[in-house]
Specification:
6 helices; two-stranded antiparallel ribbon; single chain; mainly alpha
Length: 187
């Protein structure tokens, strides 16, 4: 059984517990005692709620909710960006400055040059890909990734089972000890 705490040390620990926003582990390190000793003193003094982190937990949940809402808005914005890029840049008339014998002049074509359209489609693809990845992050708490992994694992088992079945059929067709027709060797 540990020796009882010195009354002065106990009073100092109690004062730290009663301070605003006490940190149990920090108090324990400061006074050279275990965190459970600090908790025990708080409980004995009816200050069990001193280390209550309910507000912190609620704030953390609120931040997670806000982040999820921000990702949802970003997904929507990325899809809108992709649509805007398609309509306003890829399939819209294109005006450029061309230098000719009479000097610089504006020329408008029905569509942008192919290289610019290609760059536009790349931008659209990036928007769509990033939006899908963000949406996947919040979909069914990541179960989509687990389903994908399980699907690949199931396919691997099917391939392995088919291989075993083929080996078993070959073993049944040619009993051990008979000559192999292809090589002429006995097993």
């Amino acid at each position: 059984m540990p020796a009882p705490l010195d009354p002065g040390k106990r009073a100092a620990i109690l004062a730290d517990i009663q301070a605003e926003n006490p940190q149990r582990n920090e108090i324990a390190r400061k006074h050279g005692v275990s965190p459970s000793t600090v908790t025990k003193i708080a409980r004995e003094e009816k200050l069990a709620g001193a280390f209550d982190r309910t507000q912190t937990q609620q704030a953390t949940r609120a931040r997670r909710f806000d982040a999820k809402a921000a990702r949802a808005q970003l997904v929507q914005d990325l899809y809108e960006d992709a649509q805007r890029m398609r309509h306003e840049r890829i399939w819209a008339p294109y005006t450029q400055i061309v230098t000719g014998p009479a000097g610089a002049e504006f020329v408008t074509t029905k569509l942008p040059p192919l290289r610019d359209q290609q760059a536009g489609f790349t931008s659209v693809a990036i928007c769509i890909d990033k939006a899908a990845r963000l949406a996947e992050q919040d979909s069914a708490d990541g179960s989509a990734g687990a389903r994908s992994l399980l699907g690949r694992l199931g396919e691997a088992f099917q391939v392995a089972a088919a291989g075993f079945a083929a080996e078993n059929e070959a073993a049944e067709v040619a009993p051990p000890g008979e000559a192999d027709a292809a090589t002429g060797h006995a097993e």
